[in-house]
Amino acid sequence: PSSPSGAEAHVIAMASGWVEDLDRLPPVPRYQVSLAYDPHARRVEGWVRLVATNRWSRSLDEAYLRLYPNGRGIFGRGQMEVLSVSDAVGELLPQPGDDASIVRVPLRQSWAPGREMVLTIQYTALVPNGTGGGSSYGLFQEINGVSVLSDAFPMLAIYDGARWRVDRMVDWGDPVFAEIALFEAEITTPAFFGVI
Fold first, then answer.
1. Are 87 and 118 in contact (CB under 8 A)?
2. Which of 72, 99, 109, 121 is the most buried (most CB within 10 A)?
3. pTM for the complete prediction?
């Protein structure tokens, strides 16, 4: 995977009156996502290249990822698994968090204030068939040939200056608690399958 571009690459996708907002943004996380979706197997395979700046006054020795489809509740019976996490030197050793939607990533060296952290994450996910009932809002499911892949990749949890926010997910409203970010995405599907 190549490096995700800086914020300036996103200008072409923005309405002209909003471009100057990029200059007012703090250094927000940038995600480069590449995923392949097989609608017959309801399987996602992908990688994420994450670039994030430590905007806080203390060094951090770990980062946390959120796997929202594992949160059950309004995500239904989705399953996501991190296969590997690596930095520029090599593979790191991710560890399970307090629940299946949390992955702890011990960092090779401290993430100092003002410095960028670059992680490459390989993952896979199974998209449930939505005909089984339950409390799912349809955020991550396949039903009647339509696949909804909301939050279909691992995301960096929010660090609030004191702690990583890996709170228990709620079963109503908006369950995703994530920072504003910039995204580049490449989605591969069979030719018959439309992407919107």
1. yes
2. 121
3. 0.89
